[in-house]
Amino acid sequence: MSRTLLEIWLLPRNLAIGIMHLYRRLISPLYGQVCRYHPSCSRYSLEAYQQRGFLVGLALTVWRLLRCNPFTPGGIDDVPPGLRPIFTINSRGFVRPQDRKA
């Protein structure tokens, strides 16, 4: 797959990551530390999109939000590992294709 097609393929994932960055910067501080889980639900969502892609990240985020309620004990809940990554995460948290070594 060409680099341009990979960038287009990553667009929904990076849009979701951008939305999560905005949420974490603007809205999340208003609530304080209320999440029962570690990492917080917003951090979990960000990691899910970064590591697993848009569709799987969305499904993991919805499942996490459904479990985050007063009737669960909470605890440590990391994003389940995926396959070998073919993408890298840059310093701003967005996903880019790995550079192939010739």
TrEMBL record:
Write out the entry's keywords from A to Z. Cell membrane, Membrane
Subcellular location(s): the record lists: Cell membrane
Q: Please give the name of this protein.
A: Putative membrane protein insertion efficiency factor
* Gene name per UniProt: yidD
Q: Does the keyword Cell membrane apply?
A: yes
Q: Which InterPro entries match?
A: Membr_insert_effic_factor_YidD
Main localization is membrane
Q: Which family does it belong to?
A: Belongs to the UPF0161 family.
Top-level lineage group: Bacteria
